[in-house]
Amino acid sequence: MPMISRFHSQSEGIPDEKERVKAPSRPVRILIAMSDTGGGHRALSQAIAGAIARRYQDQAVVRIEDIFALPPQTLPERVTRLYGPVIRVAPWLYGSLYHSLNHRRRYEAFARLAARRTRQKISRLIETARPDIIVSTHPLANRPILDAIAADGRPIPVVAVVSELVSVHVSWVDPRLDLLNTATTETYQAVIRYGADPRRVRCVGLPVDERFGRVVLAPEELRMTMGLHPERFTALLIGGGEGAGGLARIVEMIEAARLPLQLIVVCGRNERLRRRLEALPLRTPARIFGFVTLIPELMHAADVILTKGGPQTIAEALVSGRPVILTQTLPGQEEGNGTFVESRGVGFAPGPPRRVVENLARLVFDPSLRWWMTVNAQRVGRPEAAGQVARMIMDLARSQW
């Protein structure tokens, strides 16, 4: 089912009168095309939708659509549904598929497998939604959207928002895109190497939900609401939307290390992992969660975030001003994210569980290191990215009227 968003307005982040563009006679219709694979693309799409709604209120209507879930599903679309199970049990298989298709000719051949059926479905979606602009937050969405627009002869601008920090798949780049936003210097340079027109490329950061920069309660207060000690060192472990990242083994090793801390663990959709952790006879104080929407508050309650190398979670942690310890990076789009966090001085690259726990102990027992990484996280985080992308989208849409 599509998600149609009319968010409640908030006073923060709304442009003043000098910044406002004259409102058109009707709201701008914005279609955000994503794929519900993992939590990152969904979170990115919702971050953009929320920023548009806060700034433009009734001047825009946002619809978020998982275009790979539109029936009937083609073979390439069924492949995208395997993302969650594969990254949990055989990440190497996902990496092999990613790299095999990260060549222009191979990707084009893959995309042609179901191009006609996919184009027809997207044409029907466009006919129903009648968007003034389309925003793509998944690389595999770019080509079928642009093909559908070309086939229908509709002059609809398309903006792609790259969801990576370092490694970029060739499918992100298409000369027909009107704008392409990147998150970092590394991703900007990558899309240029793939042939993107520099005049159409922006680099304003990876949009995250603006709540990550607006939590008002102190960490001590947040911990108390969860039944945790207000002053005790707190580590937040996140496995991503699919609950990957070897969390169970890491929790067991933290318990064995007898570190003076308390844990918040988010298992995502991995119910088996949640039940396993809840059954452990832990002496370390811990709160175990499944899939939750209060990640901003959980991050602000923590001193450090332990997470697999998903770019969205890393960006959210940095906007929250928290160092990160990566537990795992997937082969493919997460490659290079360990180097990214270490080069910015905001955390540690992934390693085996023993090294992850050793890095955690370093932060527990070295307040100066923890302070340095926290300051760096606050400096590197881009809390304004969602708002800047929102303005980019609205300005482009209105320029077509």
Question: Would you write up a description of this structure?
Answer:
This protein is an alpha/beta fold. It contains 17 helices and 13 strands. It has helices at residues 40-56, 75-80, 83-89, 91-100, 104-112, 115-129, 139-152, 185-193, 219-225, 247-257, 271-278, 295-301, 311-319, 337-343, 353-365, 367-380, 385-399, and strands at 3-5, 28-34, 60-66, 133-136, 158-161, 179-182, 201-203, 234-238, 262-266, 286-289, 304-307, 324-326, 347-348. A seven-stranded mixed β-sheet has the order 1-3-2-4-5-6-7, with helices on both faces. Helix 1 packs across helix 17, helix 3 (83-89) packs across helix 4 and helix 9 crosses helix 12. 49% of the residues are buried. The model is unreliable at 1-21 (pLDDT under 50).
Task: Reconstruct the topology from this structure.
Elements: E1 3-5, E2 28-34, H1 40-56, E3 60-66, H2 75-80, H3 83-89, H4 91-100, H5 104-112, H6 115-129, E4 133-136, H7 139-152, E5 158-161, E6 179-182, H8 185-193, E7 201-203, H9 219-225, E8 234-238, H10 247-257, E9 262-266, H11 271-278, E10 286-289, H12 295-301, E11 304-307, H13 311-319, E12 324-326, H14 337-343, E13 347-348, H15 353-365, H16 367-380, H17 385-399
Parallel strand pairs: 2-3, 2-4, 4-5, 5-6, 6-7, 8-9, 8-11, 9-10, 11-12, 12-13
Antiparallel strand pairs: 1-3
